[in-house]
């Protein structure tokens, strides 16, 4: 997934759930799996990069454990404390990336948080809505996986940094896309009141020749199955 500034073990992604060909600078490979398998409705334990049989699965390493259900044709590509990712087997590029504790990324392009922007879902999506390098957009209230927050579509200048990881997700640095028709749908969800216990971001990437309507039609049914365990 070399469209973001997240770093993978296999390659550095230079600018990867509105969900732009971004640049990822965080490690996109799965950490070593625990010795005990995770139960799933298919009886299969997810292995990074391998196709998943249709079924329900639970993340093994991601903090704030995530239960998700996929039809055939999906795979998990990373499961780390601060990052979890799913993608379609048929198109290896657009990701559904799930991150813990992101911040608004500095408008200077530096890999650091933008000063003066809080950590709650409302504060970050409001900042994205008025970002000087992004197309204007309106955040909408949303509930995903039992958590509340906001969703916003992000598109604009490819040099526009959008989100940066902190703590568990240190190394994540996301940007807008340079490819026409590319965008992201970003969900920001609060952990605790107004993000008092952190946040979760879900980035749905729309790029790489995949049509927006087609992409969302494939991803949104999976997103509706998400359940985050917060206790």
Main CATH class: Alpha Beta
Count of structural domains = 1
- What helical percentage do the residues reach? under 10%
Low-confidence stretches: 1-39
**Overall pLDDT:** 82
The spatial strand order of the largest sheet comes to 1-4-5-6-13-12-9-8
| CATH-defined fold name | Protein Transport Mog1p, Chain A
If you compute it from the alpha carbons, what radius of gyration comes out, rounded to the nearest whole angstrom?
A: 16 Å
Approximate shape: globular
Beta-strand portion reads 25-35%
| Main sheet specs | 8 strands, antiparallel
Structural category is: mainly beta
Question: How many alpha or pi helices?
Answer: 2
The number of distinct β-strands equals: 14
The CATH architecture comes to 3-Layer(aba) Sandwich
Order of helices and strands: EEEEEEEHEEEEEEHE
Distance between the termini: 32 Å
Structure description:
With 231 residues, this protein is mainly beta. It has a single domain, classed as Protein Transport Mog1p, Chain A (3-Layer(aba) Sandwich), CATH 3.40.1000. Helices cover 9% and strands 31% of the residues. The protein contains two helices and 14 strands; from the N terminus they run βββββββαββββββαβ. An eight-stranded antiparallel sheet has the order 1-4-5-6-13-12-9-8, with helices on both faces. The longest helix has 12 residues. The protein starts with 50 loop residues before the first strand and ends with a strand.
Label this structure with key terms.
eight-stranded antiparallel sheet, disordered N terminus, 2 helices, 231 residues, mainly beta, Protein Transport Mog1p, Chain A, three-stranded antiparallel sheet
């Amino acid at each position: 997934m070399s469209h973001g500034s997240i770093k993978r073990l296999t390659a550095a992604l230079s600018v990867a759930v509105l969900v732009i060909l971004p640049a990822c600078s965080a490690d996109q490979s799965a950490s070593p799996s625990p010795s005990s398998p995770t139960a799933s409705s298919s009886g299969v334990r997810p292995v990074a990069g391998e196709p998943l049989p249709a079924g329900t699965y639970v993340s093994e390493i991601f903090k704030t454990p995530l239960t998700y259900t996929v039809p055939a044709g999906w795979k998990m590509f990373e499961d780390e404390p601060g990052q979890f990712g799913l993608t379609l087997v048929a198109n290896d590029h657009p990701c559904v990336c799930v991150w813990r504790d992101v911040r608004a990324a500095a408008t200077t392009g530096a890999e650091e948080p933008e000063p003066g922007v809080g950590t709650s879902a409302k504060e970050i999506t409001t900042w994205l809505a008025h970002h000087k390098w992004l197309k204007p957009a309106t955040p909408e209230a949303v509930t995903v996986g039992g958590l509340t927050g906001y969703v916003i579509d992000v598109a604009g200048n490819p040099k526009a940094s959008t989100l940066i990881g902190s703590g568990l997700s240190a190394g994540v640095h996301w940007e807008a896309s340079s490819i026409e028709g590319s965008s992201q749908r970003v969900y920001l969800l609060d952990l605790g009141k107004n993000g008092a216990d952190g946040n979760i971001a879900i980035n749905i990437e729309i790029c790489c020749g995949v049509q927006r309507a087609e992409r969302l039609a494939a991803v949104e049914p999976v997103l509706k199955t998400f359940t985050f365990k917060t206790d």
